[in-house]
Amino acid sequence: MTFGILILEGPYNHQASDSAYNFTQAALEAGHKIQGIFFYHDGVYNVAKLMEPPQDDRNIATRWAELAEKHDLDLIVCIAAGKRRGISPEVIIPHVRIDGLGQLSEICLEADRMVTFGD
Amino acid sequence: MARDRLTKIMFMCRQAPYGSVYAYEGLEVMLIFAAYEQEYAAAFVDDGVFDLKKDKDSSGIGMKEFSTTYRVMEDYGIEKVYVDGQSMKDRGLTPDDLMIPVEVVDRDTIAKVMAEQDVVLPF
Amino acid sequence: MLHTVNKSPFDRSALASCLASAQPDDHILLFEDGVFAAKAGTKYESMVKEAAGKYKVYALGPDLQARGIDAIVDGVEICDYAGFVALAADNVMCPWL
User: What count of Cα atoms within 13 Å lies in the side-chain half-sphere of residue C93?
Assistant: First the structure.
């Protein structure tokens, strides 16, 4: 089974990104494939590389980058939503690309199931 | 392609405009998706029915008036637009209050259309 | 169909709206703040109990535990993330955000 993941809410403010992370990990552990993870609305902030939470808290951006590297995941930030919010190539973590909403459409067409997390 | 036929995608619009960005950026998703020529439906439920209210003027709050763009949904290939009658009634709206002619249906009809979808995206 | 509800019923209408749309044999997963609906002894208990009779209703265990909810409404099944993944693999998801 191939899942597409859509994340619509920013980090820390809402649990959406944490739930998406836990879901993605469980899906990979169960042997499923991830077609792509698309960040939209304030979800684009999840990949901001300058975030530096206290050491006893999770670093949401780093965690996504590490999962992407380990499993060769395709992480995509929406260019329109990102531009609106100051998310540019200079400020994002590695293993993420910035691309258009067409990529979300492609994920919807290619994945067997779409799973959405947001507020 | 995950399917050997057109993918059925429904946009589930439950948020009102302006108070949050979901309706606005949701509309952008609909218009981009339309270029991929799949089978699209849009359902306006709960506060989403306010998206289609006519005579909105956002000049006083300094935000872009985007909702007239809902008028092009049909031209873009989002041919099935359903509006939940109970949500309208609860909010004191009649079809005359909306900017486009729509199919006012009950929740059961929307639920049955939803059950046929491959993808449901919430905005 | 898998309906996911992540809102507290005390704050938002997501669960009520979901229940108005759910069809027989559908699955409903309560997670994040949605798990407050699964707590025993709330004013929504009878509503959730009735829903559990008509549909398969689940609550995400880690979210219950995080919020200190140990007693849940009869008929609601606890599932973990692996269970969530299995539900999402078997059903098209409708998120009631």
Answer: 27
Is C95 within 8 Å of B122 when comparing Cβ atoms? yes
Architecture of domain B17-122: 3-Layer(aba) Sandwich (3.40)
Complex prediction ipTM = 0.97
Domain count, chain C: 1
Residue B122 and residue C96 in contact, taking contact as beta carbons nearer than 8 Å: yes
**A2-117: which CATH topology?**
Hypothetical Protein Ychn; Chain: A, (3.40.1260)
Q: Do B58 and B64 touch, CB atoms closer than 8 A? A: yes
For residue C8, give Cα distances in angstroms to B87, C31, C32, C36, C79: 20, 9, 8, 6, 18
Q: Given a cut of 80, is residue B1 above it in pLDDT?
A: no
Q: Calculate what percentage of chain C has a pLDDT beyond 70.
A: 100
CA distance C95 to A28: 21
- Phi and psi of C81, rounded to 5°? -60, -35
Which of A19, A21, A34 has the most C C-beta neighbours within 10 Å, making it the best mutation to test the interface with C?
Answer: A19
